[in-house]
Structures are given as structure tokens and as C-alpha cells.
Design a protein that fits this description.
By secondary structure, this protein is α+β, with helices and mostly antiparallel strands. It folds into two domains: about 160 residues, Beta-lactamase, CATH 3.40.710.10; about 120 residues, Beta-lactamase. The protein has nine helices and twelve strands. The strands form four sheets. Strands 2-1-12-11-10 form a five-stranded antiparallel beta sheet, sandwiched between helices. Strands 3-9-8 form a three-stranded antiparallel beta sheet. It has a two-stranded antiparallel sheet with strand order 4-7. Helix 2 packs across helix 5. The two termini are about 15 Å apart.
Length: about 290
């Protein structure tokens, strides 16, 4: 555990939403964030809380959660198998005008998939790279394979709101023309609940997605605000003005809770991960109780 929110005064429980709202507002102000949004849903007690939870944010890499759901939807329908082979290439068409673009290796968190260009990788491998190390190339390959329309229909089939999937990552031309993937904190929590409650197609497929999310490499956000015994199945996302984390938190002896922390910043502002960790701690303390 690398950081935690100060807790000299006990954090109010979820049944004291006004006080908890004030805690998040204070955190937002002291961190000098442009915006902070938090959504919490406890699968153990059904307690819920939201702080600006319906505000739209640029999704950054949290949109990959929606693509993960789409991948397993294709497996559920029998359209694809986890071992299906996918040709690895680096040429995609812009959502703006269909012009070609590439994913730059120096801007990708994972260079391993780039080394496989011209070969094939299994569907399950690409999904793992997309989530655990946030590979943009793997993401675009899966998005192209499944299709935007199919992915959006999968989300709509669950009645999910607050997730707007419109383009691949690194599609700069689309970005310049305002075509962006967007999420809300409540939308991401709704998606995570499907997995945590094992309602994402089947219990088996839900558990397989959970295993992928538990293998996340980047742990300076939500996990950093929690005790060591916590296990977090989550997806981060960060660009120049955005830092997010959304996941399911598993603690011994209880069902998980879903939490999403979305933040927007001036490009040079420090302390993004620490702020997410502090928000994670506030959520944990309100549900479970302050740590000594």
C-alpha cells in the first residue's frame, strides 16, 4: 500500500451522504483537480453513493472495460473462441473520415503486441494485453474485429448508460473533430456490477473477465488506498488531462463493492494517483470503517 487519505476525523458512513459528499468536495479542492467524480455500489449491502457520478469525462483507457464486455459477448454468442487467432497489424481507419492511422509504439503502454505485427495472437491474449498493460494496439485490433456497432449493441443489451464508445484509441483526427469515447462514474460502476454479480452473460464468463481484471499491472490508484488484504479487479486510464480508475474491491468475508473514481486536471498538475488513492480510501472507510 503506497498511500492513503488522512483520516484524523472518522469518515462518515454511506448513510451520511451529505458528510461524505463534503469529504469528496474537500479532496477535489485540495488536490486542485478540475473535476472529481465518484460512484460507489456495495454488492454486500446494496448501499450506494454518488459524487458528480453522472458527469461525462473523456474515457481514456477505461473504455477498454466496455470492449472487454464485448469480447466476452462474442464468445458467449459463439462468434469467437478464446483461442481464436487474430492477425496483428497496425493500420486502422479513422472514425471521422475513414482515413488510415497507426498506433505509435512510443505512446503505447505495451510494446509486446507491436513485436507480434505480421503474426497472430489469440483473442484471450489480446484481451489480457488490453486490460492488464493497457495495450492500445490490442484494443484497436479487438475493436476492429468486433465492430463498434456490435459493441454498442452489447452494452445497450444490458441497459447500460453512461458509456459512449465511438472510436479506437489514438484516432487523432476523430479526437480533433470531437469524436471521443466518454464515460460517467455511474456508467462504469454499472458495468462492473455485471461482472461482480456474475450477470455478464454467464457466471463462468463473468469469472473469466474478473480474472483478467485482477491481473491489472497498474496499482497506484484504487489499490493504493486500501489495506493489503484487499484484492482489486480494475482498469485505469490516463492521458494528459485525465486520470481514472474503476474496479471491484474484494475484502475477506464479504461481497465486493464497485467503485469508480474519475478525475480531470490541468496538464501539469501533480498528485493524480494519490488523489485517486485518497478517494478510494474514503469509499472504503465509509463502507467498512476507518483503519487505525
Amino acid at each position: 500500500m503506497s498511500s492513503r487519505a488522512p483520516a484524523k476525523v472518522p469518515v462518515p458512513p454511506l448513510d451520511a451522504p451529505t458528510e461524505l459528499h463534503a469529504r469528496f468536495s474537500d479532496l477535489e479542492t485540495k488536490a486542485h483537480a478540475r473535476s472529481l467524480a465518484v460512484s460507489i455500489h456495495d454488492l454486500e449491502t446494496d448501499a450506494r453513493f454518488g459524487y458528480h457520478e453522472d458527469r461525462w469525462f473523456h474515457a481514456a483507457s477505461t473504455i477498454k472495460l466496455a470492449i472487454l464486455i464485448g469480447v466476452y459477448g462474442a464468445i458467449h454468442r459463439g462468434d469467437l473462441l478464446p483461442q481464436s487467432r487474430v492477425h496483428v497489424r497496425n493500420r486502422f481507419l479513422s472514425a471521422y473520415d475513414g482515413s488510415p492511422y497507426r498506433v505509435r509504439v512510443d505512446r503505447d503502454a505495451n510494446a509486446e503486441v507491436h513485436r507480434e505485427i505480421g503474426r497472430t495472437l489469440r483473442l484471450a491474449e489480446l484481451a489480457e494485453h488490453m486490460i492488464t498493460s493497457s495495450s492500445n494496439l490490442a484494443t484497436n485490433l479487438l475493436l476492429d474485429l468486433l465492430g463498434l456497432d456490435v459493441l454498442q449493441r452489447t452494452l445497450d443489451g444490458f441497459g447500460l448508460e453512461g458509456i459512449d464508445l465511438r472510436r479506437g484509441v489514438e484516432d487523432e483526427l476523430a479526437f480533433e473533430h470531437g469524436i471521443n469515447n466518454r464515460v460517467t462514474a455511474s456508467g462504469l460502476v454499472g458495468l462492473l456490477r455485471l461482472i461482480g454479480e456474475e450477470r455478464a452473460f454467464t457466471p463462468l464468463l463473468s469469472r473469466q473477465m474478473l480474472d483478467v481484471l485482477l491481473a491489472q499491472h497498474f496499482k497506484s490508484g484504487i489499490p493504493a488506498g486500501l489495506p493489503r488484504e484487499a484484492k482489486v479487479a480494475h482498469k485505469t486510464g490516463e492521458i494528459s488531462t485525465i486520470a481514472h480508475d474503476a474496479g471491484l474491491v474484494y475484502l475477506p468475508g464479504r461481497k465486493p463493492y464497485a467503485v469508480a473514481v474519475l478525475t480531470e486536471w490541468e496538464p501539469s498538475t501533480p498528485g493524480r494517483s494519490a488523489t485517486i488513492a485518497a478517494a478510494s480510501y474514503l469509499a472504503y472507510a465509509a463502507l467498512i470503517g476507518d483503519r487505525d
